[in-house]
Amino acid sequence: MPVAWRRLWCDPVADRPDSTVPARAFRSLLVTGGAGFIGSAYVRDVLARRDGTRITVLDKLTYAGNEANLAPVRADDELAERFRFIRGDIADPDVVRPLVAEADAVVNFAAESHVDRSILDPEAFLVTGVIGVHVLLEACRTAPAAPRFLQVSTDEVYGSVDEGHAREDAPLAPRSPYAAAKAAGELLVHSYVITHGIDAVITRGSNTYGPYHHPEKLIPLFITNAIDDRPLPLYGDGLQRRDWLYVGDHAAGVDYVLRHGASGDTYNLPGGTEQTNVDTVRMLLERLGKPWSLVRRVEDRPGHDRRYAMDGSKIAALGWSPRMSFGQGLAETVDWYLANEAWWRATRSGDWDAYYERQYGPRLRSAG
Ligand code: NAD
Ligand code: DAU
Hints:
Layout: H1 3-10, E1 28-32, H2 37-49, E2 54-59, H3 71-74, H4 77-81, E3 83-87, H5 93-101, E4 105-108, H6 115-120, H7 123-142, E5 148-154, H8 177-196, E6 200-205, E7 208-209, H9 218-227, E8 232-235, E9 241-242, E10 245-246, H10 247-260, E11 266-269, E12 275-276, H11 277-288, E13 295-298, H12 313-318, H13 326-339, H14 341-347, H15 352-367
Parallel strand pairs: 1-2, 1-4, 2-3, 4-5, 5-6, 6-11, 7-10, 8-13
Antiparallel strand pairs: 9-12
The site of nicotinamide-adenine-dinucleotide (NAD) has 31 residues, from α2, β2, α7 and β5.
């Protein structure tokens, strides 16, 4: 593997000497949704960092799952030897049960992850986010080795946070079908901890960005459209606020909670970089050397959450904080998309054109 790749992906998962809780070691991980954006970063990082760890990825390969995200692992003989990929659905108990039985930890990234698609077609969000999580929990409950379970959740479960920063004990107030499915998944995890005594932890990451991000989401959509001089559809006034977390930091936070988190606990993983969408778009256009005139103000997302903001003191007290600044992370992300056109152009296949027309066609035409 090229040295530069190892450097980019190894640093974030480095052990933290300042931890307040001794680290647990896991030798055999089942990573569900490991062919997606954050899951694949986690797999690349952990395999490269932890010599003795073996990883099985179980992924359905929906439109968002992409085996090319794991190509750097397959290209490295030493990493590939400790890696196995299985295509399958977390909602299928016959597939899940034997894989969970041989793991000492299960890290669940699998989900339908795009809010706009949950407004158009919510069903798959519920099947994967509720039934799928239930199947994984049942398999953990009945597995002889009682594996630790980590549910990757989101700041969207708090709903729009108009003031201050949401702590982990704030009420759940999801406002989109995506966020409601994620909140339901969390509640199931709690029920299994309390009723069945399984060992489980939950992370709530903030808006994540970086390489290998499917270009349906704001940052990669705007970068790739701008490269092609296509319009950039900005929802509403563009003054919604998001807290951006670099993907390597998100992967590292998940790994940290897996190894240090207390069973039954939930940990916010904020990026600490809150800003408006307008400012984010300005920054990426500046890096690309493209004009603001590409931006089209279009009809807003229904139920659009105005602001996400989380309190990070619990995870900081455990010994973890994000490392990447937004300026540097965004610049590296823009440069990655410029250097990896073949990757992102290939993601615009399958139902992409039909989705794009349904989501943006009428909006862009009425914006003129
Ligand atoms: P993604 O859409 O890029 O990847 C999801 C992966 O899950 C894909 O590989 C897909 O094929 C797989 N998958 C979907 N349904 C499945 C099923 N039923 N069985 C097996 N595999 C299935 O998503 P992402 O952005 O990498 O997000 C990963 C997780 O992190 C999700 O749970 C998401 O809710 C959460 N999260 C994402 C963000 C973000 O900003 N992207 C922030 C916080 C939390
Ligand atoms: O906060 C964590 C969440 O972040 C994750 O749980 C989700 O999986 C992830 O998709 C993301 O959700 P958002 O809805 O915040 O991300 P998205 O990239 O879709 O939108 C970011 C902001 O940009 C939001 O305010 C909506 C706006 N937007 C988005 C798109 C796709 C636009 O203005 N135009 C667009 O075309």
